[in-house]
Specification:
Layout (H helix, E strand, L loop, with lengths): L8 H6 L29 H4 L8 H5 L20 E2 L12 E8 L11 E3 L2 E5 L5 E5 L5 E5 L21 E3 L2 E5 L4 E6 L5 E6 L15 E3 L2 E4 L11 E6 L5 E6 L12 H7 L12 E2 L6 E4 L4 E5 L3 E2 L3 H4 L11 E6 L5 E6 L14 E8 L2 E8 L5 E6 H7 L3 E7 L6 E5 L4 E4 L10 E3 L13 E3 L4 E8 L2 E3 L3 H6 L18 H6 L9 E7 L6 E7 L7 E4 L3 E5 L4 E6 L5 E6 L9 E5 L2 E7 L20 H5 L4 E7 L25 H19 L17 H13 L16 H22 L16
Parallel strand pairs: 1-33
Antiparallel strand pairs: 2-39, 3-4, 4-5, 5-6, 7-8, 8-9, 9-10, 11-12, 12-13, 13-14, 15-18, 16-17, 17-19, 19-20, 21-22, 22-23, 23-24, 25-26, 27-30, 28-29, 29-31, 31-32, 33-34, 34-35, 35-36, 37-38, 38-39
Helix pairs in contact: 10-12, 11-12
The chain binds calcium ion.
Length: 753
């Protein structure tokens, strides 16, 4: 038995990409900070913004107005590289806080703001939208779509939102519960709202930013872990009417196919009822419009369930999972696709930000698409040849981080070559990358002058094993109330503990990577894997906020850290830069979580995130040269675990509680009951909350806060056992903290059977 070894939660479970509820247990000692800030809102008449009209022409010519951040990735190419130079290697030491805005949340903030003509538009938790004066932070208007709290249970990765689109005098955004909105950009008043969800009995959510072009607004969704069928819809920006819809995976063939692409895709799925699981393939992050060819590229997500032998027994590539799909911008008609991970078996989404560029490759100027998806290979695709031939033309696919699932990508076949040594179909295995990916949605930045891409990369293995129950019975039953991964979750802790020797060491890296040669020019190691998006600038700098709470500027030539600012909060959101009245600004949203809610209290060598020390205080920070504003230091979190009242229960009951906790609760409240910071840590529940435990979990008395009831999927016995398990874990961690135990045992605490 190896139970005395420290247990490295963060990396194993950091991996799992997770759900979120909200406010579980209002009575705990760690109240969430949602809504504690009283907004000072100026009257719209007084300070109505006056932004010029944004249309296709203006976004296409975004380079002519470098002071604005006019679209999600700054331009349609989405390179996220600012041409501004006033903040540069020489002047950056003078960079200071100009202003900040408390967002009144301790959940993750992920948005890329849009800044245009002095106004900043961005989103916060619960899909709330803000318009503020970019120079001062003064709120001009805010809009709350009033997402029902219960919907949080359907969200895999927190109540987050990645931003808005601004176009033709309107602000477009989508809410967690799947509605798309058009707001008046000047007043924040709603113009129209549409429900984008085809089947409300399934757990669809939206966290991504819409994109706009040619009078249409494009939006996808998420939910693959719960069992949904992915699609993207284009709506008329004026009326909200649907223009086209493209499904990314086929539905029930007996109902007929929506289009020839689905008929083609269906041939790559096997088995008798794969469509019942939903299939997955959600487009939850990247949608890029290409004015050169009038197409929209869709970054398509993972399979549902994850394990291919359950999802599509008998094999098949399972199109269009883990693919980049090009569709006609006007009609949504399929043009071509590139599948990064055929037969996805690991949650390897290809939803990560895509960038378009003109690059000289093999002696020729080429129009390329660049993507660093979860699977660890950096893809360079020839857009022009792909468009002309209707078949993807892959130019490069070098690994940008440690990869064990495949040995390489064969440029002849354009397919990855899988590594049989980490095949987990029989025996579980650690695989790199894990489900958080070698790169996730945290944006990269493309520096065409240097021929480099700055990537927030990570190495964070996960122990993949096929679900034990399925292995025993051969039956996989979709449970609409939880994740349906086909992965063994009940015994995850035990599996990890028994295989610690083979676990690769985790870490985060900011990398300057050459996508053509596969060389890493420089790499900055960061002692936690889950870090923020990246911004490169013509001032010679690369900005990134990290898990340790440092917002830093690195020399883009060497990776040397030239400037840092302690925000005391872990960051995920990408920085942006803009200019107003001749002054350059850099801004970032703070607050971590998202897919890594399993990252609670990691043990060495992983460092504790700032948010676990200082409470994940969500803020918008804006910096300028000579900025003098002081940022208040948040209180250090009280980590005391109260004494537990343990009941006289059996090991079996606790084991059952652990299994259900891992299936239903861990995705939000943290693996082994250690919260990653955003949600209440159940080890610290007060007596009052303990007394209400069953009412909260079964009846959903905190539903409007985000903690929906689970009576549809859990029995009273189940909930009692979960409660026993939570108390047992809390007791053990308390004993360790008091020095009565050397290290947690993660084994049973009940009466011996
Ligand atoms: Ca996923």
């Amino acid at each position: 038995r190896k139970m005395n070894k420290p247990f490295p939660f963060a990396f194993t479970l950091g991996a799992i990409v997770i759900v979120v509820l909200y406010y579980l247990f209002g009575g705990t000692e760690e109240p969430t900070q949602e809504n504690i800030v009283k907004e000072e809102i100026s009257s719209p008449i007084e300070s109505s913004p006056s932004i010029g009209l944004i249309d296709d022409e203006r976004i296409i010519n975004a380079e002519s107005e470098p002071g604005n951040w006019i679209a999600h990735g700054r331009t349609y190419e989405e390179q996220r590289f600012s041409p501004l130079t006033k903040i540069n290697k020489e002047s950056v030491s003078d960079l200071g806080l100009a202003w900040y805005k408390d967002m009144g949340t301790n959940r993750a903030l992920e948005a890329t703001p849009i800044v245009v003509d002095g106004i900043m538009f961005f989103t916060s938790t619960w899909s709330r939208v803000y318009a503020v004066e970019a120079k001062t932070g003064k709120t001009i208007w805010k809009f709350d779509p009033e997402v029902p709290g219960e919907w949080a249970r359907k969200a895999c990765c927190d109540i987050v939102n990645r931003g808005v689109a601004v176009y033709e005098g309107k602000v477009f955004f989508a809410s967690l519960d799947g509605r798309l909105f058009s707001l008046n950009a000047e007043t924040g008043e709603k113009i129209w709202e549409v429900d984008t969800i085809t089947d409300r009995s399934r757990a669809y959510t939206i966290t991504g930013a819409p994109r706009v072009a040619k009078g249409k607004v494009f939006i996808g969704n998420g939910g693959a872990e719960y069992g949904v069928r992915g699609y993207v819809t284009a709506y008329d920006t004026e009326t909200g009417e649907q223009v086209w819809r493209f499904f990314t995976v086929p539905g029930d063939p007996s109902l007929g196919f929506e289009d020839p692409a689905m008929e083609m895709a269906a041939k790559t799925w096997k088995g008798t009822n794969w469509w019942e699981f939903g299939g997955g393939g959600t487009v939850w992050n990247s949608i890029v419009y290409d004015p050169d060819f009038n197409v929209v590229y869709l970054g398509v997500g993972n399979g549902s369930p994850w394990t291919r032998e359950i999802r599509s027994p008998g094999g098949g590539d399972n199109l269009f999972l883990a693919s980049i799909v090009a569709v006609d911008a006007d009609t949504g008609k399929y043009k071509w696709h590139y599948q990064t991970t055929p037969e996805d078996n690991w949650d390897y989404t290809a939803v990560q930000d895509m960038a378009l560029a003109d690059m000289e490759i093999d002696g020729e100027k080429k129009k390329v698409l660049l993507q660093a998806p979860k699977n660890g290979f950096f893809y360079v695709i020839d857009r022009k040849v792909s468009h002309q031939t209707g078949k993807a033309k892959l130019l490069r696919a070098h690994p940008f981080a440690a990869v064990t699932w495949a040995t390489h990508v064969d440029l002849e076949t354009q397919r990855p070559v899988e590594n049989p040594e980490v095949d987990y179909s029989e025996n579980g295995s650690f695989v790199l990358p894990g489900p958080l990916g070698a790169h996730n949605w945290q944006a990269m930045s493309v520096d065409l002058d240097a021929g480099l891409v700055y990537i927030p990369a990570q190495e964070n293995a996960f122990f993949y094993a096929v679900e034990e129950n399925y292995k025993k019975t051969g039956i996989f039953k979709r449970n609409p109330g939880r994740w349906n991964m086909g992965i063994e979750m009940s015994s995850l802790a035990q599996n990890v503990l028994s295989n610690l020797e083979s676990m690769p060491e985790p870490g985060g890296f900011l990398k300057a990577f050459d996508p053509l040669t596969g060389e890493t020019k420089w790499s900055v190691p960061i002692p936690h894997y889950w870090n923020g998006g990246v911004l490169g600038t013509a001032g010679g700098l690369v900005f990134q906020g990290d898990a340790l709470g440092m917002f830093s500027a690195y020399d883009k030539e060497t990776g040397e850290r030239l400037w840092e600012f302690n925000t005391y909060t872990s960051m995920l959101a990408p920085p942006i830069s803009f200019e107003i009245d001749g002054e350059q600004y850099v801004s970032i949203l703070t607050g971590s979580g998202g897919g890594d809610l399993f990252g609670g209290e990691p043990l060495p060598p992983i460092e504790i995130q700032a948010s676990l020390t200082y409470n994940n205080f969500g803020r918008l920070l804006v910096f300028k040269l000579g900025g003098q504003k002081e940022l208040p230091i948040p209180d250090v979190r009280d980590k005391t675990i109260p004494e537990q009242v343990l009941a006289d229960v059996s090991n079996d009951q606790i084991r059952n509680g652990e299994s259900n906790y891992n299936q239903y609760c861990a995705v939000c409240h943290g693996f082994v009951v250690k919260s990653a910071g955003g949600l209440p840590d159940l080890r610290k529940m007060t007596k009052g909350t303990h007394d209400l435990f069953n009412k909260i979990v079964l009846e959903g008395i905190l539903g409007s806060n985000g903690m929906a009831g689970f009576a549809d999927v859990l029995s009273e016995d189940d909930v009692n056992n979960i409660h026993h398990y939570v108390k047992a874990r809390a007791h053990e961690d308390r004993e360790v903290s008091l020095g009565n135990m050397e290290a947690p045992q993660f084994t049973w605490y009940g009466v011996e059977d």
